[in-house]
Amino acid sequence: MNKEDYKKLLPSLPTDPGVYRFIGADEEILYIGKAKNLKKRIASYFTSRKDMRRKTKRMVMAAKKLNYTLVETEQDALLLEATLIKKHQPRYNVALKHSRPYPYICIKKERFPRIMISRKVLQDGSKYYGPYVSKKRMYTLLELIKELFQLRSCALNLSEESIAAGKHKVCLEYHIKNCKAPCVGFESEANYMDKIEQVQNMLKGQLGAVRKYLKSEMGRYAEELNFEQAQRTKVQLALLENYQGKSTVVNANIRDLDVFTLAQDEKGEMAYINYLKVVEGAIINTFMLELKQNLDTEAEDLLLFGIRELREKFQSIAPEIVVPFEIQLPWSEIQLTVPKIGDKKKLLELSEKNAKYFILQKQKQALAKANKMGKAEQLLEIMKKDLQIDDLPIHIECFDNSNLQGNQPVSAMVVFKNGRPAKKEYRHYHVKTVVGPDDFASMEEVVFRRYKRLLEEKKPLPQLIVIDGGKGQLSAAVKSLKALGIFERLAIIGIAKRLEEIFFPNDPVPLLLSKKSPTLKVIQQARDEAHRFAISFHRDVRSKQFLQNELRQIPGVGEKTQEKLLLALGSVKEVKKANLSQLEAIVGANLAKKIRTYFDAKS
């Protein structure tokens, strides 16, 4: 879309809250956003803002149309936006960075459920708790569950029929008191499920309910004069209290709540949401969510995205959310708190500290990786960041034109792989459809021919195309890429010679890189190499044309005679060397004498 498209749309845009969608070719949804005032929000995409990121400009350019849906309130817009993003996964919306899958504790859906570790959440009716970033904490919790409740670990099918038929026998786990043998009917299903309920309380962090259950069990055993079992339960209660004592307790009076903080990297490309899950005054889980920012995104929107994602991931039903600044929540029943003092403020500071430490660790890892990786990979990473492109420019192709006052127009293309020339892949082109000195039309023709052939031969496209020239040559090349339908699949720039300005499609403001920038040096090298290759090819073409024209200077030698001579002898040089009898055999005695006389006189 351009400003003209926007001006046509402007009169119909409402000032109500709603959700808007930028839609590209083939009805693909590129971006989904919400707005308190649709007219103002959509207008912001078509103003000449210098701070607008290139990705935002690229998204608007790629859009073919814009749709919107009106809603009653801003809260409704938040909910609808979240639903649509989850359904369509637009390319330019904030995206989760895929990290390694953390494990969950699973309560299997089966008779006499087992407790197990799972790295995948399956839609099989089982209950999943987690994910657990700390394996140590997870295994400590599993060991405690094993000590407290003696649940089965076998994979037997414990149906009523199989137990009644006596198909199973007690195993070693029963003899060492790790299981109460429900497989042979020594433990009822009701009693087993009571224990599963307490396991669920533990996994939710509700240790108070578990403690109450163990105390009631200890009292029951004492009343039944089963003092051995009562003593065992007392030991279990001590184990639970010891585990609870090791948890990070903030304040026992604080009810269940979720704490979220936001941190962003220096370049604004990544955002990090730190989450602390607090139950009964203790932090029972922590998590760091990494988000990739594909467009300009407000801090409030990033935090809200993280809150929705994490509460769903951890199945949180906490009635209160603690955040560092005011945001508009889509849930009216949840209390939002921005603390200034007290224990909740300390929790917020702890979360912020975790986020900052995580970013610091990321930077250290990146530095260590940079020290390990080769110079070529470092260079490509720098180029990717400097030019704000999506992929590493491993494969670069650069184009240049050459002609002499419009005569014999030719073009050249050079290829760089990993920042170095790949000379075997250089190509030169005779411009076929352009008459006269038209640099723009020549560029359009050659770029079209190059990538049409790559598409037909199903060969990989480059990650970056460099055009030697300013806005005109760049626009001509872009026209060909759009005609082939590959404009969105790669990056293209133009470099103007005078000030070494880097131009981007449909962006009037050029990028000026430092003269010492390694990115600029690679682009300059590719441009200079394409220029050299184009001039060299043009010189060869002119030389060949001149030699061929020289034969036509001889009286009596026309186009057909020239073709005969070149076909028989191969070149003008060989014609010069040929003796009279050789020439007579090709063109006859009379013309052979004239040719020989001409070259003898010149020599």
From TrEMBL:
PROSITE patterns registered for this protein in UniProt: GIY_YIG (PS50164), UVRC (PS50165)
Q: Where in the cell is it found?
A: Cytoplasm
Residue ranges of domain GIY-YIG in the record? 15-94
Domain UvrC family homology region profile, which positions?
A: 279-477
Q: Which CDD domains match?
A: GIY-YIG_UvrC_Cho
Q: Which GO terms describe its molecular function?
A: DNA binding; excinuclease ABC activity
**Could you tell me which SUPFAM superfamilies the record lists for this protein?**
C-terminal UvrC-binding domain of UvrB, GIY-YIG endonuclease, RuvA domain 2-like
One GO term (biological process): nucleotide-excision repair
Q: What does this protein do?
A: The UvrABC repair system catalyzes the recognition and processing of DNA lesions. UvrC both incises the 5' and 3' sides of the lesion. The N-terminal half is responsible for the 3' incision and the C-terminal half is responsible for the 5' incision.
Name of the protein in its database record: UvrABC system protein C
Q: What is the lineage of its organism?
A: Bacteria, Pseudomonadati, Bacteroidota, Saprospiria, Saprospirales
Q: Which gene encodes it?
A: uvrC
